[in-house]
Amino acid sequence: MTLGSTIRDAREAARISLESLSDxxxxxxxxxxxxxxxxxxxxxxxxxxRGHLRNIAARVGINPQVFLDLxxxxxxxxxxxxxxxxxxxxxxxxxxEEKTLSWKVPAIISIAxxxxxxxxxxxxxxxxxxxxxxxxPTVAASANPTPETSQAPAxxxxxxxxxxxxxxxxxxxxTRGNSYIDIVVDGKHVSKGSFFQGDSKSFQxxxxxxxxxxxxxxxxxxxxxxxxxxxGGQNEEVRRTFR
Length: 243
Prior knowledge:
Blueprint: H1 3-13, H2 18-25, H3 29-36, H4 46-60, H5 64-74, H6 82-88, H7 104-130, H8 136-143, H9 146-155, E1 168-174, E2 179-185, E3 188-195, E4 200-205, E5 209-214, E6 219-223, E7 226-227, E8 237-242
Antiparallel strand pairs: 1-4, 1-6, 2-3, 2-5, 5-8, 6-7
């Protein structure tokens, strides 16, 4: 019996439909169907797959470890055969003898580099001592202070200190991968669960929007109509608050 058939049998024994299980676990019906067919390729990796299995086990009344043990045996990349891992890391290949350089070669190169650097410094020093001093640009600059005084007021104006008014509108789109989100708007939880590639949600608050994201590299965020730069890398976890 595979993990997928075990999940289906447990769900049917608990008399829970796919639609009800999807609503209570925030897992898409299509992904649940794939999991019951023993296909976990679209779960987003071992971490997300184990999280889905724990949520399903809690809903159907099964010990989560039953699902996790079957997943580790059948699908987890962390429990592959040692030989497969050795082949991946080229450990099984015949080692090649590396040629070593004589110590004389690096020594000769180092001495040549030092000689060239010393010669360049001597040439630069001689050129600096032979160059006549021209004081005319200095006199002209000191005689006309107008450019400095005209630029001083402009330097004091900074658009970044202008406070923003109105509501906070944040849009999250999973354009390059799956994620897990937890959104708090004005101190209240409004969304929490898996966020799959192709999904998009918008949130509006009056004072603050706090977010927790996993795998931020797969998401595009837009704040008040302006796209934000990526908040993190692949499989990282970030927390951010916008006010």
